TrEMBL record:
Pfam families according to UniProt: PMSR
Annotated ranges, domain Peptide methionine sulphoxide reductase MsrA: 21-169
GO (cellular component) term, any one: cytoplasm
Active site residues according to the UniProt entry: C28
Listed Gene3D superfamilies: Peptide methionine sulphoxide reductase MsrA
Lineage of producing organism: Bacteria, Pseudomonadati, Pseudomonadota, Gammaproteobacteria, Legionellales
GO biological process, one term: cellular response to oxidative stress
Name of this chain's protein: Peptide methionine sulfoxide reductase MsrA
GO molecular function: L-methionine:thioredoxin-disulfide S-oxidoreductase activity; peptide-methionine (S)-S-oxide reductase activity
Keywords: Oxidoreductase, Signal
Keyword Oxidoreductase: yes
Family: Belongs to the MsrA Met sulfoxide reductase family.
Signal sequence, renumbered to the chain: 1-17
């Protein structure tokens, strides 16, 4: 009995957890996936969709704007190396939170920015972070909402920046993502 209790305590404590998850929407999921994979402690990123309710969304159905899903990235990370707070802070600095229903050259609800929380702790961290950020940006359109259900995107979207480096770099440059991020976040 004691062993079972000890295992329950260890497995429920984030200091002993092997992995944790977070979900963010920051416009094009290819770009968010590439950005988050640069962080030490991120074990895996998965491009996908969250925020809608229709089962098994596809890229075409999400892009139609009729599903309420948003291009998102699910992050599997090591909580011993990286905290959820650090992920949230990193996320903010890789989007433009002052734009509604778009990011850079990508327009529409499915490109909105959002932090999809998975529990109350994530919700509280995200809300507090947004509140602090409102000192710099009085109007922030990034939503902090519960994850409805994350669905992985089609295989050709996974690791797009690695599998199609020239197309990805061209897209990212032409979209103006890095230029705008530098403008928004310059000190």
């Amino acid at each position: 009995m004691r062993l079972v209790l000890l295992l329950l305590i260890i497995n429920s404590n984030p200091l002993f957890a092997k992995t944790a998850e977070a979900i963010f929407a920051g416009g094009c999921f290819w770009c968010m996936e590439a950005d988050f994979e640069k962080l030490d402690g991120v074990l895996e990123t998965i491009s996908g969709y969250d925020g809608g309710t229709t089962p098994n969304p596809t890229y075409a159905s999400v892009a139609s704007g009729k599903t309420n899903y948003t291009e998102s990235v699910r992050i599997i990370y090591d909580p011993r190396k990286l905290t959820y707070q650090q992920l949230v802070d990193y996320f903010w600095h890789h989007i433009d939170p002052t734009v509604k229903e778009a990011q850079f050259c990508d327009q529409g609800h499915h490109y909105r920015t959002a932090i999809f929380y998975l529990n109350e702790e994530q919700k509280n961290i995200a809300l507090a972070s947004k509140q602090r950020l409102q000192k710099k940006f009085p109007i922030i359109y990034t939503e902090i909402i519960p994850s409805t259900q994350f669905y992985a995107a089609e295989e050709y979207h996974q690791n797009y920046y690695k599998n199609n480096p020239l197309r990805y770099k061209f897209y990212r440059y032409r979209c103006g993502r890095d230029q705008r991020i530098n403008e928004v976040w310059k000190e």
